[in-house]
Amino acid sequence: MLYGYTGRITIVDLSSRSFKTIDLNEHIAKLYIGGKGLSNYILYNYGIWDYEPYTPGNLLVFASGPLGGTRIPMASRAWSAFRSPLTSILGGSNLGGSLAAYMKFSGIDALVVKGSSSDPLYLIVEGGSVEFRSASHLWGLDAIETEEILQRDHGRDTAILAIGPAGENLVRFASINHDRWRQFGRTGGGAVMGSKRLKAIVFKAVDKIVNIAYPDKFDEYLKDLTKKLLPDPTTKALREGGTPRLVEIANRIGFFPSYYWSKVRVDGWENIEWSSMKKSYFIKAGACLYCSVACHRLVESRKFNVRVDIEYETIFALGGNIGIVDPDWIIVFNDLADRLGMDSISLGNVIGFAIDLSRRGLIDYKISWGEPEKVRELIVNIAYRRGKLGEILAEGVALASKILGAEDLAVHVKGLEPAAYDPRTLRGMALGYSIAGRGADHLGTMAYAIDIAGRAGGRLSLAEEKVKTIVEYENLGALMDSLLLCKFGRYIYNFQNMTEVLNIITGWNYTPEQLVETAERIVTLTRFINSKMGVDKSKDQLPKKFYEPVEFEGKEYKLTIEEVEGALNTYYKMRGWDEKGVPTQERIKKLSINESKIISI
Asked: In Å, what is the CA distance from 39 to each residue of 43, 248, 446, 493, 577?
């Protein structure tokens, strides 16, 4: 028995409306764990670089991990992976909620979807079996409506993934929604589902048992871990203010991207920081399945009669980044993004880009900072690809900038728009954005956490100590994404206690050193896959805007190409990659990255 796993991967072919269920090879499970590691191995094993994002050959992988469904705190994440239509390299996203547990309750560790359907479909996954149902009555509905209908039809003892109109219309940053307010948000998985004419997936529980190698030890460990978790200052802060608490910190310190990356503090930020919003908009806290932290913040705009689960990134992207500091309107935009099915970070960036171009007289559409009615119109037009500008912006910032002849003004790395951390005042993020596996990503390296805490030389350092710390955090993050632990657990979990819990659940005999090597294997595999799609040092480049000085409280902050180049070279050397940023054959061999076809898709 493979403890901690169901031991099964289900592979669905939408073109033939067929499926097969195969055994999860224990050797592969030990090498890649689950989640990100297992998903990326499946894509590597398949040769994902041979298939363009919108072709039937592109795979869509959903994976749980050995901790999913076990009641371990902060272990309620799930992973999705595919070739991204936004970046054309390895795409991936992570969400919370109930999916990780219900995948295993439905009898599988991973679901692999290939092919495409001629008509809209949704899938029912139950006991390792798959049923194909018509989704013609769901096509055109928003993601939340779709989930509500499927819950009504199939019961609440389910976990549902659904796309909205943006996914159907192949908006390149379309999201996949779950549990009403949770998303696989980044890199366009919703558009991949839309290209396959796959509206939704329903995971139905068969049983709710995860077999654990040492159940008595597990119960004791769970008690001890919970005792450590509750008084931890970071988790306590998340319980009290969720991620919106960062709005005040970001504006006070000066890293809150505003007016499309032209400032690091938005005028009127006091209106959108959490203590202010809490008084007039807060309804209650929410949590992912089996999580005691409860970092989610349900808020309501009584003015517009709208409720959403609001996050820091959305307050940035659909607030300060476009010059809006009215919480009612940010809540409305959040609701539209959720229902229409779009990543709020990319959406806010692409709208900010459009406003910047309009103010410069480079497009015909007239819009400026702080014009919420026009923003609402743009959001809808993007989701439905209406009008010339809606059609262009649905392509994302990188492709839109090429169409509009404004590449020098576009803010992205490898096609992915960045999150709410300005690298001019948080220098670790300059390296983090440059080398992250999916583009301008903040969660791959978690460098923002290092910078905000002032660690490794402080917020303005990109010296060797900072690079070394970023490598360590990236290793930690890769393992957390494969065990599927929440990144907010980074102050609770470390390689020592992650080894302990993994061994108790699986019965394996990992050492912390072996788990570090596993993390390094996952990071290098990710880079190796991307290198087969053209990624090397030439693509690890920041946008020109990040090298323009930014002023904050009378002081000028300027990032230089030389310091970023130096950090990149140091990073590659630490990773055992060559001077072009490509993993060497020696490194690949040492990390046992196996090219043989162990999993047949």
From this structure: 6, 36, 21, 22, 22
